[in-house]
Amino acid sequence: MSLTRGTKLGSYEILSPLGAGGMGEVYRARDAALGRDVAVKVLPAIFSRDADRLRRFKQEAQAAAALNHPNILTIYHVGEHNGAPYIVSELLDGESLRQRLDAGSLPVRKTMEYAVQVARGLAAAHSKGIIHRDLKPENLFLNRDGRAKILDFGLAKLTRPEASASTELPSVTAASEPGSLLGTVGYMSPEQVRGQVAGPASDLFSFGVILYEMLTGKRAFRGDTAADTMSAILKEDPPEMVNPQIPDALARIVRHCLEKHPEERFQSAHDLAFDLEALSGLPATGAPATAATDSKPHKWLVPFAAALVLLVLGMAGDRFLRKTGPSPLPTFHQLTFKPGLIYAARFAPDGQTVLYSASWDGQGPQLYSTVPDGPESRALSVKDSNLFAASSAGIAISVGCRLIFPEDCEGTLATMPLSGGAPRELAEQVNAADWMADGSQLAIVRQVAGRYRLEFPLGKVLYETIGWLRYVRTSPRGDAVAFVEHPQRGSDIGFVVVLDAGGSRKLRSGPWVSLEGLGWSPQGDEVWVAGTKDHAWANEIHGLDFSGEDRLLLRLPGMLRLHDISPQGQLLLSREIWRSGIMFRGPGDTRERELSWLDYSVVSDLSADGRNLAFFEPGEAARVLIFAYMRKSDGSPAVRLGDCSFPSFSPDQKWVLCVSVSGDQLAVLSTGVGETKSIRANQIVRYGKFGWLPDGNGIFFEGNDGRGWRIYTQDLVGGRPTPVTPEVLVVPERSEANLVSPDGRWVEVRELDGKRQLYPLAGGDSQPARGMDRDDVWVNWSNSGRSGYIRDWAKVPAKVFRLDLSTGKKQPFLELAPGDPIGLSAIRSVRITPDGKSYAYTYERALSELYLVEGLRQAGLKDHQRR
How far, rounded to the nearest angstrom, does the alpha carbon of residue 239 sit from its chain's CA centroid? Predict the structure, then answer.
């Protein structure tokens, strides 16, 4: 149906035609009510003959309109005119991706920019249950301002029969070849070709096909006939992308999108967007990650001197030195020399002394002071404490340090004079604090009722999250506060956030794969952060200003943490070596055996017979991903199961349940032959601890609906999650497991006040888990279900007890620690079989050396290299 100039559709007056295609005609129109030009797409009247189908289309188009996402075409109105449906949307200025591709492939940098935007748009739509079903270059629009837009959400659903999974087939259209498919067959997923339901994973496959074409200028799947193309989609892989400018990591992402089976692709568009964002800073010839497989004790005593040689050599060719004239290299002055872990370091108000907290020679954390001109450090009087901040008003510390991450302590905030004296306690469960420059007020981060709060000043809540906050720093002028937000507790993936004193956001940068410290530039116009977007651990210093500019100041080999910045631009940096490994002992073993695999092995489950371990690798070997594995306890090679964390065995060991990197989706993976099944409840935004029910047909999990955490159960055959508890408190790092009793009656729960309770899964009143203290961690039930195994939180060595649940009586059972104590920071993820005959656990090692860095500010500002 063609419309002439002056035709009115409600308040919209047609001005001129813009184009036409198989899905209708597009016109420029004037919105008389709001005085703006819009686009009107009029669909063929044939689409309105099926009233039910048109109703469903309107519902989906209206849902898409409600998304209001910058990378999705904004829809203003859906209506009908003379029996034909029409859509009113924003008027775009630019060209379609198809038009751009007609000239050949896109540069890698532009491809990445557009790909990240499209992935974000898909993630927003999928989170609302809206699937595109017909992604192709024609449906992606590139605005002149550089913004990518996804078009025609809901239209693909209108053009296909709405039926069951067995009958949903693409429409056939009249074409030069009998049976050809609408002209977009080359972008269909295998399940669409087979006539199966098109879910979110189908959009991800189509996205991968488009991404391949953007990078190569060629179709990923193209045969002489539509049937040949469909056959290629089902059976063949596209040709390798041989362009040397394409980073290897980007090529892997494309291949991951193009997996034939939906369950083998990315688990969500959110995960895909995250990985693309993490790669956005890669150089064009990004090298594949290498795996560090040797975790023997003597590796922990390798001097840092060799690494510093690499540092100086590496910086000589790095990006911030690429300019027309010479620039002085920053200088590094080592301040600490003992083996152990540094928690935090700060410049003292005198400008000469450096204060720090550290755990040396396997001892607990303590405060120390040193000066650059002297190699010795002096121990201060306060032990079992962590340094937060120093100012003329005194020192802010954490008393009763309780580890929540390798270098993060949570405890009671206290202040003490610089000259020494008894600490004055101010607030509990604080994990970060900083003085204002004049020492008049404190900004803090603390945990309250299972949520993390930023208070600035102390007592005034500016920010709250279900995730995890740390590294709070106030600006030199005292008018803003910067901190790091991690959506998932126990993970250093996160965002840099800056708020003004009123709570208004000035900056949110990320996501970063790893963030390890931040501070304010001397002028207060930038936040400097230690982070990375393409490695497992932070290895760069970036300067972030409030306009969104991100400049690279420094890159080092290995891992670093940023502790403090002086008014003169000096930095306190520590170089880090972090590793974790797995120890195991079975019935026939005379001693513990090492079963570590790559550089950061974390055990998450031990089968009831003690023959198989499930574990995951979130370290440098996995880079921006997390690898899930299973391994026989006899030491046989590990088998990679997928890309997720905390895999947990089903009772028959044929499956594992695990969680996505982003923490917002569960998946069931086969340990042998079988298809992956994704699990995502619409109301759940984050998953905590989880596991199987004893019958193997259902699961339990801690889920957060945005308001609080609860325990749920869910039948894997179908059905919705069923809440079991009121709000509960999540233990960081999902360190607890096997929460459900062998008979399936009870689940062990930590409540908001820290008390431990046993809740009946069938509903009813809870009863106390007698004998469990606040810092006790649940490990497993015994075979009988009348007792359980518990351990103390994060202490080294870790003490494991057998707890009689009827009396609350504890009996010592095990004491866990690997033989070499150097750098040993924590014992995590203890797993014991119900009969108590086999066990496994994760140990963490961390070594730090503190450096005073000078000259970085001058080099960085002079070069002003933009990332």
Answer: 31
